[in-house]
Amino acid sequence: EVYFKNLSKQKQKEVMEKNGNNHKLRVCVATCNRADYSKLAPIMFGIKAEPQFFELDVVVLGSHLIDDYGNTYRMIEQDDFDIHTRLHTIVRGEDEAAMVESVGLALVKLPDVLNRLKPDIMIVHGDRFDALALATSAALMNIRILHIEGGEVSGTIDDSIRHAITKLAHYHVCCTRSAEQHLIAMCEDHDRILLAGCPSYDKLLSAKNKDYMSIIRVWLGEDVKTRDYIVALQHPVTTDIKHSIKMFELTLDALMSFNKRTLVLFPNVDAGDKEMVRVMRKKGIEHHPNFRAVKHVPFDQFIQLVAHAGCMIGNSSCGVREVGAFGTPVINLGTRQTGRETGENVLHVRDADTQDKILHALQLQFGKQYPCSKIYGDGNAVPRILKFLKSIDLKEPLQKKFCFPPVKDNISQDIDHILETQSALAVDLGGTNLRVAIVSMKGEIVKKYTQLNPKTYEDRLELILKMCVEAASEAVNVNCRILGVGISTGGRVNPREGIVLHSTKLIQEWSSVDLRTPISDALHLPVWVDNDGNCAALAERKFGHGKGIENFVTLITGTGIGGGIVHQHELIHGSSFCAAELGHIVVSLDGPECLCGSQGCIEAYASGIALQREAKKLHDEDLLLVEGMSMKEEEVVSAAHLIQAAKLGNTKADSILRTAGTALGLGVLNILHTMNPSLVILSGVLASHYVNAVKDVINRQALSSVKTVDVVVSNLADPALLGAASLVLDYTTRRIY
């Protein structure tokens, strides 16, 4: 709430004036249960913090007002919201008819409330039967509806209710790109759909920094440790109540056999919930020493409990949505969440005839830690929603318009927007500089940050985190949605684990370093790490000459010599992640010593360091400078001086460059005879000086079957950063859950 109060009010005022809308928007937020309040509360805080733009009315109904479910309306009062109206709408019962009667009772009571409040817009969340009554009442009374979390897919009757509310709603706030596409496919107006992310993520992504041990002790006991307990939350499936009760029994049996401290929350108000409570009591869960059974846990405390649990089990949407923000393992039971997008932390048990399958799932998942997932939000949902609310023009006709024909004919209108906003954070860990950039799907470097690379591990990691946090914050301002972080670094890398096994001599203290975990934990983003040569190949595959080419090789010619091999459209890493160390192909048995300790490597001839070494030798013998060249006394001799001297007619410098080019050409020749690629791409600052020499070697010495290979110079300005971005963009945009 403090955050929203500190938002720039002047900037928001300018937006309002520009839209010609100085009317205070009267917003009614109706909340039915503890779950929807966790999503609505951040929006309510945001609205309350800007009284110059909004008037907030809160209506409470449903299970909030039932003692059996914890009287959760109290947490709304504790959050200092004035509750305008309390409506008792739940009809007690244990079958489907009770839900129908509850909807009917709500429809009877709501018109009087809405007539008194006369809201400009009503905010409705989710897919519960109570929400359907709210949306129906508002639509029939000509009140605009903003629906939160439309377009998602799950199991049971909830799908039908959610999509029914979508058709009644005038505006839509969705959490994922897939949900947005579903809404468009359902013929909703593109201009009235906001892809904001889940509002609860605004709170979730800062939750881990708080004190949590006291909360764990209160709910689970003094002797419980982090990652050594389970949170269980299971609801009845209203389309198959009998089977869901059986699944709940098996779950409790498995949890008792697993013998870990477990916090069990009571189920939602649904047909079958009373039978589930009877199962708990029949098995003695409320008195079992390993179990704590509770009706309700405040959301702030619930966040801490699931964030530090060894596992969460059940069929709650919280497990497949919010818990992914912490990387906590989840076991999703049954069909209630079928179709939901999930992170890799979720293991599905679709059906179980015995407790053994669930017990085995517990053994697989308990105690693991997965990368944090941001499928459902990036922590900036509420500012987007408030801006969206301010843009609503009450003078527009109330009647909804549907976008026919189907979206297939309109895809081209949306692709440009998608490409512009989806982006990656790219990190290039070089020997001298550390660079971080925001890179768009089109390969445009939107913003770049450069700092000198610190010498120690601690300082280096601290600087990476600082620069990434700064870039991620700036991404919001430049309308970029960060999908993940890609890191390009020298040395041998295990990309599966995100670990630098050992680096080059240019980057000291950088061996057996886990880069993925600390950066993922700090930014709540997935992180990919790979060798800089491999990243250069990925950059070419996505943005450069390698686009659409099945087999090609990229060589980097810079301070060192590296590269990457793409075979059948996939990058080759090798059995020990040492593939494509192209700089260490030996082209002479008695050549100069290489930094790797061997002799005659390509890198010992053709790298920037090798050319600098030869330039120093010539300079020491006064054989480097020729007419037209000059050097200051304190100036360091470099490869650039050797190249300049060769261009100005220095025969010795020219001979050194020709030897270097020939060495590189022989290395390429070995690659052609081994991998038989159709394209060789030379990248880096020295590429243009070597390309003709490489072609000459191929023409003279290659087998006739490979002489037709194309050798080109890369046209990418920054392959390291673009390659790091490709790690993210290639993976996240083709991933299917």
Automatic annotation (TrEMBL):
Keywords: Allosteric enzyme, ATP-binding, Cytoplasm, Hydrolase, Kinase, Metal-binding, Multifunctional enzyme, Nucleotide-binding, Phosphoprotein, Transferase, Zinc
One term of GO molecular function: UDP-N-acetylglucosamine 2-epimerase activity
Protein's cellular compartments: Cytoplasm, Cytosol
Catalytic-site annotation from UniProt: 532
Cellular component aspect of the GO annotation: cytosol
Binding, an N-acyl-D-mannosamine: 492, 504, 532, 581, 584, 603
Source organism of the structure: Chionis minor
Pathway(s) it belongs to: Amino-sugar metabolism; N-acetylneuraminate biosynthesis
Catalysis performed (reactions): UDP-N-acetyl-alpha-D-glucosamine + H2O = aldehydo-N-acetyl-D-mannosamine + UDP + H(+); an N-acyl-D-mannosamine + ATP = an N-acyl-D-mannosamine 6-phosphate + ADP + H(+)
EC number(s) on file: 2.7.1.60, 3.2.1.183
Lineage start: Eukaryota, Metazoa, Chordata, Craniata, Vertebrata
Name of the featured protein: Bifunctional UDP-N-acetylglucosamine 2-epimerase/N-acetylmannosamine kinase
CDD domains in alphabetical order: ASKHA_NBD_ROK_GNE, GTB_UDP-GlcNAc_2-Epimerase
Annotated UDP-N-acetylglucosamine 2-epimerase domain residues: 53-390
Subunit and interaction comment: Homodimer. Homotetramer. Homohexamer. The hexameric form exhibits both enzyme activities, whereas the dimeric form only catalyzes the phosphorylation of N-acyl-D-mannosamine.
Primary subcellular site in the record, as a coarse category: cytoplasm
Signal peptide coordinates: none
GO biological process: UDP-N-acetylglucosamine metabolic process
Coiled coil: none
Family: In the N-terminal section; belongs to the UDP-N-acetylglucosamine 2-epimerase family. In the C-terminal section; belongs to the ROK (NagC/XylR) family.
Binding-site residues, Zn(2+): 584, 594, 596, 601
Gene: Gne
